[in-house]
Specification:
Layout: H1 16-27, H2 32-47, H3 52-61, H4 64-71, H5 82-93, H6 97-114, H7 117-126, H8 131-134
């Protein structure tokens, strides 16, 4: 029997240096240090928002240094919307919301490439509205439950 081709096969393992170069490219950062700063701050903020299997799965698909930034954070008791995530990141890092959104997009674009589609779907399902766009995905409305 032959293995069937997959639509989005997961990428092979990426080193932290390779991840930084991809983030540097995505974010058009001038230095690797600026890309590293974006990776650490965005993944730390994401680590405060996700729990359980999604957290473990994302950590497993990231390079060790990036996984440590994600898992070193204690999840917050209250989840933020996607826009709340960006605003919180801006306040914590002392940058404008536009820069925080740019950093988020650059880092999560690379995370999206590293995570398999099922893991990404489970992660987005766990998060409030607004995160799909941060991950470069279409934001689909969730069905409302009848009261």
């Amino acid at each position: 029997m032959y293995d069937q081709p997959r639509a989005n096969p997961p990428l092979t393992a990426m080193t932290f240096e390779q991840m930084l170069e991809r983030v540097r490219y995505e974010g058009a950062y001038l230095t690797r240090e600026r890309a590293a700063e974006a990776v650490r701050t965005v993944l730390a903020a994401l680590g405060r928002q996700i729990t359980g299997d999604a957290r473990v799965g994302l950590a497993q698909c990231l390079p060790v240094e990036a996984a440590l930034a994600l898992t070193a954070q204690i999840p917050d008791t209250e989840q933020l919307t996607g826009w709340g995530f960006v605003k919180d990141l801006a306040v914590r890092t002392g940058v404008s919301p536009a820069i925080a959104r740019w950093d988020t997009g650059a880092v999560l674009a690379v995370v999206t490439r590293l995570a398999d589609p099922d893991l990404l779907a489970r992660t987005l399902h766990q998060l409030p509205d607004g995160y799909a766009l941060l991950f470069g995905q279409a934001e689909l409305r969730r069905p409302q439950l009848a009261a």
